[in-house]
Amino acid sequence: MVINKDKVIEYFKGVRTEWGKVVWPERPQIVADFIWVIVICTIFTLLIFILDVAFDKVLSFIPKY
């Protein structure tokens, strides 16, 4: 496989051009999104923990042979 140097350079020039068009969020938005991710992950973790304990209790009534 032959890599064309001109195409690689052209690709990275295009990447640099597109990178300049990106509109990055402000710091307060990033902080708010981060907090939401932590809250949602915590809620789902607690939900899975509660379901795990509940299923463990329910399944403990099934006799083991």
What topology does this entry show?
Elements: H1 5-21, H2 27-59
What can you see in these coordinates?
The structure is a single chain. The protein has helices at residues 5-21, 27-59. With 65 residues, the chain is an all-alpha fold. It has a domain at 25-65. The model has no long low-confidence stretch (mean pLDDT 93).
What attributes does this structure have?
65 residues; 2 helices; mainly alpha
| Helix/strand/pairing category | mainly alpha
Which series of helices and strands comes N to C?
Answer: HH
Largest sheet: none
Cα shape: elongated
Q: Radius of gyration in whole Å, from Cα?
A: 26 Å
Summarize this, please?
The protein is mainly α and about 60 residues long. The chain has helices at about 5-20, 25-60.
